[in-house]
Amino acid sequence: MRIDKLSNGEPTLFITPNREKLEKVFKRLNLEVNFHLFYTMGITNFLNYANLKQKELTLRGLDNDKIRKWWKASNNMSAINPDLAKSFTFITSQFLKTYSYIDKNNLDPTQNKDEYKNRLIKYCDSVIKYFRNKIEKNIFFIKNEDKIEMEKLYLERKQKYYPLVIKLPVNNLVTNKTSELGFVPYLIYDDLLDSFHYNKNLLKNTTDDAINLKVYEDNEIINKTSNIDDIRTKAYKIELKDLNLNEILHRLKIY
Fold first, then answer.
1. Range 133-154 average pLDDT
2. Residues 77, 13: contact at Cβ < 8 Å?
């Protein structure tokens, strides 16, 4: 997500993982993700990072009204993109597999430092391989009405990549009208590739303990299926638009 969109109150198009495909991963690993907490953590981290960057640039934090305008406008937009959804599903499922392996083998970031880090590095490698392969294939799928269409991510001339702008059909949920939004998926995939390369190098070169993934269990973001009671299941079905923005802003002390 782009910080400038947020600071200007302009909408962000939210593309989330494929929930049905993740359900199959959950079942296989005997895990469930509390999407209310999962999405809350993601939006909270994004707003916190954006607020810090805004202070660095302007000496002032993000404007509360701008955030609300951005949130409302973003949730009034809807689009289906099979390519991005598949990619985000892959990242999430690979993370859950990594989490499950660490949990089942009782790996500790301090006591089993090397094996723990190697498992996280393996996760990074799988994502790096996935996005490198996507960029090399130079194919991006979009859904236009009932058809899946294939586009190129970039043009290549003299061993240089020139990213292409792709038009994505977007539905305004207020007016129920559809328009086209131009965006550059190559930059999204290239940023993700860079991020996981950075994370991998950080894991390889730092002497500090790796992040303890048990924090996801302690905060009930990821749970074993057998530990979930019927009363709490609604939190596992929640959508991004259902988050309580007021709670997030209060936690970040943005009033």
1. 93
2. yes
Q: Which amino acid is at 245?
A: L
The CA distance from 96 to 29, in Å, is 8
Amino acid at 1: M
Q: The whole model's pTM is what?
A: 0.89
Q: How far, CA to CA in Å, does 179 sit from each of 167, 175, 187?
A: 9, 11, 22
Q: Please, which contacts does 20-27 make with residues 24 or more away whose CB atoms are closer than 8 Å?
A: 21/89, 21/93, 22/89, 22/92, 22/93, 22/96, 25/93, 25/96, 25/97, 26/96, 26/225, 27/225
Domain locations in the chain?
3-249
With H, G, I as helix, E, B as strand and everything else as coil, classify residue 254. coil
Task: List residues bridging with 181 in a β-sheet.
Answer: 168
Helical residues (DSSP H) of the chain, grouped into ranges: 3-7, 19-29, 35-58, 64-75, 82-104, 113-137, 185-205, 214-218, 245-252
- Percent of the chain at pLDDT exceeding 70: 94
Distance from C-alpha of 89 to C-alpha of 111, rounded to nearest angstrom: 31
Per-residue pLDDT, 251: 86
> Per-residue pLDDT averaged across 177-182, rounded?
90
CB 188 within 8 A of CB 83: no
What is the reported pLDDT for 54? 86
